[in-house]
Design a protein that fits this description.
This protein is an alpha/beta fold. The chain has a domain of 197 residues: Spore Coat Polysaccharide Biosynthesis Protein SpsA, Chain A (Alpha-Beta Complex). Helix content is 37%, strand content 19%. It contains ten helices and nine strands. Strands 1, 2, 3, 4, 5, 6, 7, 8 and 9 form a nine-stranded mixed β-sheet that branches. Helix 9 runs antiparallel to helix 10. The longest helix is centred in the last third of the chain and has 22 residues.
Amino acid sequence: MCKTTDLSIIILNYNGQYWLERALRSIEKNYLPFTIYRVSVTVVDNASTDHSVDFLKTIDWVRLIEADHNGGYAYGNNLALRENTSKYVLLLNNDTEFTKYTSNLDLLVEYMDKHPQTGIITPRVELANGHIDKACHRGEPKPWIALSYLTGLEKNFPKSRFFGRYHQGFKNMDKPHTVDSCSGAVMFIRTSAIKKTGLLDERFFMYGEDLDWCKRFRESGYQIIYHPGASVIHHKYKSGIENDNQDAQKKAKSWFYNSMLLFYEKHYSSTYPQILNSLIRWLITAKCKYVR
């Protein structure tokens, strides 16, 4: 059981020793010396086969939880969330990085303290090139929004309020505001809201669990906030869709589309007409088969 802290940082790792070392060094150098809060760091290793665990056992300020198998994103994070006693939790991917001048997580703590209706808050998540990681700023993928995204209409009209509602490019990205969902790569959460909403849905192995969780938080009466006052770098796709290993890439794409289908079946199939359900299922399944 973790000692009582204000913020518990939880990092999930699977065969990502290089990026994990980089992430932990950035936290140690660019956040821990400057925060005014009590912070703990936990790494959940999802049965890695590289030297990640050996490396983690050499760091005395990091708590290690070793999973007995790779059960996916939700499974691994839930292992730590079940034991969490902190007021707030920050879920991080192992391919994230803090910078000294922008990773002001204390600002997010202060915002949460002042806004009890906020259940989840995301900083501005940036790619290595400085552009925003659009996954941190999303609308709920209802059928029309999902179709606009899947068919490329949003890509052609990113600032349109009609076609661009998935990544909501029409909003002012320089000011805090509500969104429907953020990215599980960097997700700052109120622990008391987790107790009300429930843990991550472990049926989602990889992708989609963040969308599902944010929807459930909103249904529990909480807001999801995008706050650009702090930022974290995300070296995206190092273990997913754009992994250099072609087999890993195909597997990740398959998980992506299967998660989209699971999300639709869980939240929408009972409320929309059968003809629309069939169209959505066909479109997602066709895209999934295409990458195999």
